[in-house]
Amino acid sequence: GCDSSLNLTSQKATDAVNSVFQSLRDIARVRMHMKQFNSIRNPGSNTHQAASYKPLLKQVVEEICNPDRLDPVDIEHMSSGLTDLLKTGFSMFMKVNRPHPGDHPLLIIFMVGGVSVSEVKMVKDLVATRKPGTQVIVLSSALLTPHSAVELLFAPDRLQPDTDI
C-alpha cells in the first residue's frame, strides 16, 4: 500500500511486517497435522546448541531415500488400478506391506508454488548419494529466484491461480 519511500509511515511498515509474519504462521499451520514433516527448524541438542534450518524438500527426499526402509509416516502410497485396490483391501486382514516410495527406479517430485535451482541441485545430490541409479524428475509450477520468492511472500493473493493465460 505504499508506492514510494516518501509515503512510508511507521504504521504501514508495521502492517507489512505483521502481514509477512502472519503468512509465515499460516504456512506453518498447514503442516501442523503432520507427524514427521511439521517443522523446518532443528532446535539443536545438548552438544550442538545452535538451531538450524532443514528444508522440507530435503526432509522428504531423505525419507524417500532412507535405507532403513521404515513405513513413511507422512508419505502415503495411493493405490492405482484393480490389483492395487485388491491388495489394499486384503491388507486389512493380512500383513501386506505398502510399497515404499523409494522402491521405484523413477522418482517424480512436483513442487506446488515453485522450486529454486539450489533445491533441485540438493535433490539431485541427495538421491545420487543415498539411492544411486534412481532417476529423478523435479517439476514445479514456477522456477523461483530470491526476488520472486520474496515477491510471492508479499503478494496479497498468492494462493489464487494466475488467470492471465
From TrEMBL:
Q: Name one GO biological process term.
A: vesicle-mediated transport
| Family matches, as InterPro entries | Sec1-like, Sec1-like_dom2, Sec1-like_sf
Membrane-crossing segments per the record: none
Q: Which UniProt keywords apply?
A: Protein transport, Transport
Which superkingdom, per the lineage? Answer: Eukaryota
Q: Which family does it belong to?
A: Belongs to the STXBP/unc-18/SEC1 family.
User: What name is this protein filed under?
Assistant: SCFD2 protein
Gene that this sequence comes from: Scfd2_1
